[in-house]
Automatic annotation (TrEMBL):
It comes from Jiella pelagia. Residues 1-250 form the ABC transporter domain. It comes from the Bacteria. GO terms for molecular function: ATP binding. InterPro entries: AAA+_ATPase, ABC_AA/LPS_Transport, ABC_transporter-like_ATP-bd, BCA_ABC_TP_C, P-loop_NTPase. Gene3D superfamilies: P-loop containing nucleotide triphosphate hydrolases. PANTHER family: ABC TRANSPORTER ATP-BINDING PROTEIN (PTHR45772:SF1), CONSERVED COMPONENT OF ABC TRANSPORTER FOR NATURAL AMINO ACIDS-RELATED (PTHR45772). This is ABC transporter ATP-binding protein. Pfam families: ABC_tran, BCA_ABC_TP_C. Keywords: ATP-binding, Nucleotide-binding, Transport.
């Protein structure tokens, strides 16, 4: 995916200003920055919730902006949300099946002949894939529970499961570890790493936990006041003076510790 000179205005407020970057197939690309920097606005442009005021977004060489928000799931783009968007009264299984719905080809007429037509076979096939996701995210024990009664960490897993159910080539993760305790973060990090291996997905992630970002990312771009102020490898971003000032508050001790951890991991 290639984002080229994207700007977004809301009245007199410019949420994004001439933002450009690319996401390469198979990588984990992180978009970071202070609160209000424009990170979620960028994801909303990619997923179709917002339309840029100017600029272009190309997906596999095609103009993404000409496609509706509903079309983008079929094009291979899925996402999770910063604020959970589950159907709380529905079971975990049904929430995940909602994400699978767009891949089902049966209609009202074929559904009338469920037992003798292809509708039943198709549903069984889709359910097998959903079971794979449930096993992958280790949520078998809550599969029939209403999503609304689960712990926050488990609801985050269910939302990720629903996004995986689309079988996207690119998955957009909006703060997947926000509000989690250390154990929940470790589990989620493990699942995100495995997404590439198990499902061959490219990942674009927004995350505030700098340790997680530096450990997991192949490349990082930093937004501040809607502009890209740095981009590159985690090591390059950590060393950037603009990032220290805008995002990390020039906390040299923390930066040195993160840089040392990164160097140790590389060694």
């Amino acid at each position: 995916m290639k984002v080229d000179d994207v700007s977004v205005r809301f009245g007199g407020v410019k949420a994004l200003s001439n933002v450009s970057f690319d996401v390469r197939k198979g990588e984990l690309f992180s978009l970071i920055g202070p609160n209000g920097a424009g990170k979620t606005s960028m994801l909303n442009c990619i997923s179709g919730r917002y339309r840029p005021t100017s600029g272009n977004i190309a997906w596999q060489g095609d103009d993404l902006l000409k496609h509706s928000i509903n079309d983008r799931a079929s094009l291979g783009i899925g996402r999770t949300f910063q604020n959970l968007a589950l159907f709380g009264h529905m079971s975990v299984l049904d929430n995940i099946l909602v994400g699978r719905h767009h891949r089902m080809k049966n209609n009202f007429v074929t559904g009338m002949f469920y037992w003798v037509g292809g509708a039943r076979r198709e549903e069984l096939k889709e359910r097998r894939f959903v079971e794979t996701i449930i096993d992958f995210l280790e949520i078998q024990h809550v599969r029939n529970e209403p999503a609304g009664i689960l712990s926050y960490g488990l609801r985050k897993r269910v939302e990720l499961a629903r996004a995986i159910a689309i079988e996207p080539e690119l998955i957009l993760l909006d703060e997947p570890m926000a509000g989690m305790n250390l154990e929940e973060k470790e589990d989620m990090a493990r699942f995100i790493i495995a997404l590439r291996e198990e499902f061959d997905m490219t990942i674009m992630m927004i995350e505030h936990d700098m340790g997680v970002v530096m450990d997991l990312s192949d490349r990082v771009a930093v937004l501040d006041f809607g502009r890209v102020i740095a981009a590159g490898s985690p090591e390059e971003v950590l060393a950037d003076e603009h990032v220290k000032k805008a995002y990390l508050g020039e906390d040299d001790e923390m930066l040195d510790a993160l840089a040392a951890e990164e160097a140790e991991a590389v060694a």
